[in-house]
Amino acid sequence: MNYDEFIRFISFFLDRIFISYAFLLIFSYTVLSIISGIALNYYLKKNSFVDYNVILDSPLAPSVSVLVPAFNEAKTIVDNVESIYTIHYNNFDVIIINDGSTDSTFEELLEAFKLEKVNFAVNAEIPTKEVRGIYKSTLSTYSNLIVVDKENGGKADALNVGINVSNKALFMAIDADSILEPDAVLKLVKPFLERTDRRVIAAGGVVRIANSCVVEKGRIAEVRIPRNILARMQVLEYTRSFLMGRMAWAKLDGLIIISGAMGMFEREIVIQSGGYAHSIGEDMELVVRIRRYMSENREKYKIEYVPDPLCWTEAPVDLKVFGRQRSRWTRGTIETLTDHSKIFLSPRYGAMGILGYPFWFLFEWLAPLVEVLGIIYMIVLFLTDNLSLDFVLITSLFVYTFAVFFSTCAILYEELTFHRYERKMDVFRLWIAALLEPFLLHPISLFFAVKGNVEYLMGNRSWGKMERKGFQHHKNKPKKVDSKN
Amino acid sequence: MLIQFLNIILMELFGRVSHVQGVVFVYFDFWKNHFDRAQSIVNYTFERLPYTVLNRLIIYMIIIFFIALLILLPSILFSKLYIAYRKRKTALLHQKYSRIVVRFLINDLSEKELTDLKRIKSKFHRKIMTAVLISIDTAESKIVSKQIRGLYLEMKLNEDSIKKLRRRWHHKIVGIRELSHMGVKSENKYIMEFLQRPNEILRIETQMGLIKLLPFVPFAFLDSQEKPFTVWEQINVFDLIRKKRIEIPEFHLWLDHWNDSVVMFCLDMIRVLKQKEAAPKVLELLNHQSDLVKGKVIKTLVDLESKEAVVRLKNIFFLEELPNQVNIIRSIGQLRLESEVNFLIENMASKEFKIRMECCKSMALVGDTGIAKLKTLAENGDEELKGIVNHVLDPRI
Known about the structure:
- The complex is a heterodimer of chains A (485) and B (397).
- With 485 residues, chain A is of the alpha/beta class.
- Chain A is 50% helix and 16% strand.
- Chain A contains 14 helices and 13 strands.
- The longest helix of chain A has 45 residues, at 3-47.
- Chain A starts with a helix and ends in a 5-residue tail after the last strand.
- Chain B contains 20 helices and no strands.
- Chains A and B meet through helix 1, helix 6, helix 12 and helix 13 of A and helix 3, helix 10, helix 11, helix 18 and helix 20 of B.
C-alpha cells in the first residue's frame, strides 16, 4: 500500500465517521424539536384552562423557600431582593446567603432591610462551611426575609446552607441577578401539586435574556431584543435550548439539567441525596444525583419542566466574561458526566441512562471536539491534495442551512407560543442574528468549549470571575437593563 | 409540461380577461426562470461532484432546508400579524356583544335587533357571544342569570356547547364549562364518563362541572374516583366550594374510600372546614397503612383540637416514622397540654434535631411552666439543646 492509497484508505473511514456523526446530530436535533413542538402545543392548550390564582389563597398550597446565594453583589443585591418580593405567592420565605463576600454586599443588606442578628438554630443536615450569623429583617414587609452570613465556600456551599436553614417543603434556588416573573413560583409549584404515583422531585423553567429589556420596579416592563449582537445571538441560543431542547427532554423523561438561575426542588430529596456538590456545574450535577438517588432506591419519580418564561438574566456581552462562562459550562458538563459515568447506557436509570446521558456525552461534550478534529482532518486532506473543495463547499452549506433552519424554527416556536418579542422588527433582527450566528457566535463558543476541555484536563476547577453590568432599576422612570448593550 | 398545463387552465379561466391573463403569465414566467436557474445550479453541482449517494443526499437536504426556510420566514411574520389581528377582532366583538347583552338585560333591544342576534351564524361570533354571556353572568342576581340563560338557550348556543363535548379534549373542556355555567343538565351522563379519562385537565374540569351541575350531590364523583385525586384537583375543588357557596357535605363519609388520595382530600377538608364531629372517624384511621394518610390524620386531629387523640398518638409514637413523630409532638404544643410536659422532656434526649426542636417548641407553647422548664434544661443541656432553646425563645424568629 503506497502513501496515496493509505491516505485514501484512512479517509474512507474518517469520512464516514464524520458524516455519520453529523447526520446523527442533525437527526437528534430534528427529533427533539418535533417532540418539543408536540409537548409545547399540549402545554399551551392545557395551560389555557389553568387559573394559577387558586393556589394563592389555598390552605393546601405547599410552603416554599427562595434561596439566593450572593457573592460580591453589593451593586445589585438590594434591588434584587426587592424584585423577589414582587412574586405572587403567600406561603414563602426568602433566604439570602452571603457567601463571604469581600465587598459590601452584607452591609448593604444590613442597612436596607434593617437586619438584626437572631438566635437561629440550624440543623446542619448537609455539612457546610461555618455560618457566622443569621439575621432577620425588623421591617414588617420583609418579616419573612432571612439573611445568612457565612464563610466563603462557593455557590454550592451557600445553597446547602440555605437548604439547612429552610424548613419548607420545597425550595427554589435562584441567582442573585435573576429577575423573576411575578407568577414564577406559582407556575413552578404546580407540577408538584399534580403528583400522582410518580413523585415530582424537581421542576425547571425557562430562563430568558434581559439585556436591553425595560425594567421597572424589579419587573420586566418591556421585552426587547438586545442591541448587542453577542447578547442577541445568545437569545437565539437560549430559545433553542430551553424551548426546543429541554422541553423535549422533559417529555422523554431524560432531562438532566435545570438551570442554576432558577429551579425548584423537593427539599427532603435533596437532603437525602447529599445536597449540592462542590462542583463547577452544581446545577446539572444535582439533577443527575437526585435522579440517581431515586432510581437506585427504586422510587417512581419525575422531573417537570415549565416552558413559560419565568426568569430573566443578564447575558455576558464582554468576550472575556462570555469565554469564562462557556469554559465553566464545559468543565461543569465534563465533571458531571465523568462523575456519573455509571449511568451511561444503563437501563436501571431509565431515559436518563439510555437517552439523556448519551446525548449529552455525544453532542454536548464531544461535539466541539469532533468539530475541531473535523477541521484538522480537512486541513490534512488539503495539504495532501486529497480535498475536494466542491465537497467542502456543499457540506459547509449543508451545515449552515441546517443551523439557520433550526434557529428559524426556534423563532417560530417562540412566536407561536409565548411571543414575548412584540415588535415586528424583532423577528427580523432575530433572524438576521440566526444568519450571522454560525459565523460569529459559533466559532467563539467552539473555541471556549475546547478551551474548557483543555482546562479541565489541566485540573482547573475554579468558577471564574463573573462581572455583570447590573440592572438599572428606576423607581419612577423605566430604564433599559443595560444602556450600553 | 406543468407550466403548459397551467397555461391551458388559465386560458380557460381568464381567457376573456386578457390583462389578468397577462399578469398571471408574467408571474409564472418569473418563477419558471428562477426555477430553471436553480435547477441548472443543482445540475452543475451534480456534474462537478462525484456521483455518490451521499453527495446527492446532502444537496437534496440543502434544498429541503432552503425551501423550508422560505416557507418558515413568511409563516412567522404571518402568524405574528394573524395573532395581532385575531386579538384585535376578538376585543372589538367582545365589546360589541357586551353592549348588546347589557341592552338586552335592560330591555333596550328592539325586536329586529333581537331577531338578528338570534340569527348569528358565524362560529367565531357565536363563540364570542357565549364568552360574553358567561363573563357578564358574574353578578349574584338570579334574575340576570335567568335572563342570560334564556338568551343562551334561545340563541341555541347550548347546541354549540354540546357539539364541543364530542370534539377533542380541549373543546370538551370549553363545552363542560359553558354547559355547567348555564346549568344545562341534559348531558350530565355523558360528561360523567370523562371522570375516568387519563387527561388530568379534562378530569378536573369534569369534576368542577359536575359540582355545579349536581347541586344536591356535588361530590358524587368522589365515589367513583379511580385515578389519583391530585392536590391540584383538590385545590381547584376547594376553591370552587368557597367561591360558589356549594353545599358542603360531611367529608367523613369518604374516609373509608379505597383511594388514599380521596381520603387525604377529605381529611384536609375536615381539618380546614373544622368538621369536629368527624373526629372519632378520623381517629379510627390512625392505623392506616399509608404513612402519608397517617401524617394527615395526626395533623387533622390536632387541628380539630381532639385532646383524647393525644393518648392514642403517644401510644403509637415509637412505631412511627420521623415526620409523624414530629407531628405528634407538635400536637401537644398546639393543644397546650401541660400534662404532657414530661413526655416532651423525655424526647428532648433524642438524637434527632427535628424532634428536639419540636419538643422545645411545644414546651414553649404550653405556657410559663414549659418556658421555665426549658430554661432550666438549657442550662444543664448540651450545646445543641442550648442553641435550640435560644432559637425557640427568640421572639424575632
